[in-house]
Every structure is written in structure tokens, then in C-alpha cells.
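Entry 14. Ran structure prediction on the chain below.
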Amino acid sequence: MTPTLISSFIQSSIKKQDELRKELNSYHYPEISDRSFFELLKLKVQEIFAQRGIIREFDIDKHNKDVIRQLYYYLIGDQTLCKWNINKGIYLMGKVGCGKSVLMYAYLALQDALTHKITTTIHAKQLIDAITRNGIDSLKSQPLFIDEMGRENLEMRDYGNIVKPVIDLFSIRYEWGGRTYATSNFTLDTLEGSRDQNGNIKEIRYGNFIRTRMDEMFNIVELPGDNRRMKWEK
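Output, C-alpha cells:
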């Protein structure tokens, strides 16, 4: 390789890395204050409540306030105060009814409005239908939010062959760097496979191949607390 070709290769690589850094930074909006963030997030949650026929205020309490505070630092891109990696997606897990889905829906709506992103939202049960209808390439790189991950059917038949499109989707999104968000009742360990009392996998679900990629794609965040739904619906 000649010096000219080497120089061209280096410059091309540097340019591409700069473009990728700009794309990562485009997910952040440092101009918003924490007070405005909390107010707007609360309004969006209450809008989602109203859509569900629930008219009440959203409570920021001891169970969710730390996660909401970290969401703020994540949005403004403050890597010093944010305990998460600001360039990864978010895997928000917790008990049934703890409020993780409504919180993620509201956060992403606010993030999209401020950063002009368009995050595709799909319930896990709809994933295979979406992949079958539009092809896996339609979901390979854009921001994607999967609600209730782990509830989807893993397998489908394609001309008599059993395929696992969800696993293929995560593999291709890992390669393309697609920003991914998810909520789930499952830990990554239980998504990888069911385990015996000694912690050994007895039945593979996503498997280690996808599990290790998910570790790199996601900030693993737990939203504490029990079922809020009865409380919210009074």
C-alpha cells in the first residue's frame, strides 16, 4: 500500500469516526433543565394514563426517583453524573406493574421531541409479525423500543424451516449499532435461558450469543417497587 493510499485510508476512517460520534451525541439534549425535564416527563406519563382511562397525577417517589434522575443525566449526556453509559440503549426491568413501560414510553416521547429522533415502538408480541411483514432489514438500525421483551414467540416457520427472527434481529442490530430500548419482567440471565437450582442453563432461550451482545447494547437498569396499577386506578 502506497503512502497516498495509507493517508487516504486514515483520513477516511477518522472522518467516519467523527460522523459516528456526532450521531451518538445527537441523542442528547443538554439545554433542558432538570425541573423542566421532570415537569414534561410527568405530563407525558399523565397523558398516557388518560389514554388508558386513568385520571390522576404521576407520583415520583422513593422507588422511581433515582431512575428518573438518571434518565435526566442520560438525556443531557452528562457522563460524570450519569451512572449509565450515555451511548448505550436502556434495558429497564422490574416486577409486573411497577411502571417501567409507562416511564419508558414517556421518556422516549420526550427524547424524540427534543432531539428530533423517531423511535419505532413495538410490543414484543408484535415483533415477529413486523419482521415477517416488512423484513428484518426494516428494523436493523433505527432507534427501536421493544415493550415487554421476552414475551414474544421466539420461533416461526418459514417454508417448513424453523427460524428465530428475534435472535437474528438482535444480531443484526448489534452489528449496525442500532440504539435499542426495552422493558421486561425478565433479567438477562432468564432471557438467556431457564436455569436449574445450581444456576446452570437447562433450556436455551436467547442463548449466550445474543446475551453477550445485549450486555454491550444495553444499560441494565432495574426499576424497584411492586405493582402500582391498583394504586393508580383508584
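The first helix runs from residue 3 to 25. Will compare against last week's run tomorrow.
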